[in-house]
């Protein structure tokens, strides 16, 4: 994005705390990554904030995190940590990083429930190209507000998995149909589904999220080429 390589919630570990081993291998070997210019973190859950992975990064790597989470990084000797509240922004080499709302929660120990914030990120380069990374979130009015404040989103990375049962997870995880509605609320041009078939976090069948998001996309009458339902490890170049 804007000449920068940015990792979003990087997890290269085979296992995380409290879940079975990952279902699919990591899409890109760590050794094959280009130099990493920045990292954005959506919240502190173990499937999004992975200590062993972050330990592999040089400590001078710029890291953008939610309010209240900076100390976790400075304690691990990261020297370029930017902590933001919702609607706050920072800039790195011509790319603007805006932290935007989501409906989720945070917890890493028995004593830190909701002590740090959670949210998504909007990245905007000098040419005005935009990517929205939603992190973990339920569905609600905040998507339309993000779309209003950041018009012209070229690609929305939206979560489609870990939604069943709904009585338990609807507040914090969109289901595939809600993800398509969120995409429409954002006014984004394209959508890349994420947060599926990696760790077992809920009870829906592993591949059901992908089947349902394709059906919801077709039902909404959206152009098929704008749904970037890539396989794990797949890649595509964004040409705005």
Give a description of the structure:
The longest helix has 12 residues, at 208-219. Helices cover 18% and strands 18% of the residues. Helix 3 (142-149) packs parallel to helix 5 and helix 5 crosses helix 6 (208-219). The model has no long low-confidence stretch (mean pLDDT 96). The protein has 240 residues and is α/β, with parallel strands linked by helices. It is globular and about 50 Å long.
Helices, strands, pairings?
Layout: E1 6-8, E2 38-40, H1 51-54, E3 63-66, H2 70-74, E4 81-84, E5 89-92, E6 95-100, E7 120-124, E8 130-133, H3 142-149, E9 155-159, H4 166-169, H5 176-186, E10 191-194, H6 208-219
Parallel strand pairs: 1-2, 2-3, 3-4, 8-9, 9-10
Antiparallel strand pairs: 5-6, 6-7, 7-8
Helix pairs in contact: 3-5, 5-6
CATH class wording: Alpha Beta
In percent terms, what proportion of residues is strand? 15-25%
**SSE class:** alpha/beta
What is the correct CATH architecture?
4-Layer Sandwich
- Please give the alpha-carbon distance between the first and last residues: 11 Å
CATH homologous group name: Ribonuclease Z/Hydroxyacylglutathione hydrolase-like
The counted number of beta strands is 10
Helix content range of the residues, please?
Answer: 10-25%
- The assembly state of the depicted protein chains is single chain
Give a short account of the largest sheet: 6 strands, mixed
Strand order of the largest sheet: 5-6-7-8-9-10
The coarse silhouette is globular
Low-confidence runs? none
């Amino acid at each position: 994005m804007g000449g920068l390589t940015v990792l979003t919630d990087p997890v290269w570990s085979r296992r995380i705390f409290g879940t079975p081993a990952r279902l699919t291998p990591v899409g890109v070997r760590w050794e094959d990554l280009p130099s990493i210019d920045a990292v954005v973190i959506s919240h502190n859950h173990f499937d999004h904030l992975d200590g062993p992975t972050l330990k592999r990064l040089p400590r001078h790597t710029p890291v953008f995190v939610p309010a209240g989470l900076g100390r976790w990084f400075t304690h691990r000797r990261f020297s370029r940590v930017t902590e933001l509240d919702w609607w706050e922004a920072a800039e790195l080499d011509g790319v603007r990083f805006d932290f935007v709302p989501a409906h989720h929660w945070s917890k890493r120990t028995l004593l830190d429930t909701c002590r740090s914030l959670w949210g998504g990120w909007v990245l905007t380069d000098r040419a005005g190209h935009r990517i929205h990374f939603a992190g973990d979130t339920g569905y609600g009015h905040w998507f339309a507000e993000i779309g209003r404040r950041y018009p012209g989103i070229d690609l929305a990375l939206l979560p489609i998995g870990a939604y069943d049962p709904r009585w338990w997870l609807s507040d914090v995880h969109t289901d595939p149909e809600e993800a398509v509605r969120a995409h429409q609320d954002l006014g984004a041009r394209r959508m890349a589904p994420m947060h599926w078939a990696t760790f077992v976090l809920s009870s829906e069948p592993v591949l059901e999220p992908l089947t349902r998001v394709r059906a919801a996309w077709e039902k909404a009458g959206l152009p098929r080429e704008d749904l970037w339902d890539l396989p794990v490890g797949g890649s595509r170049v964004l040409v705005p």
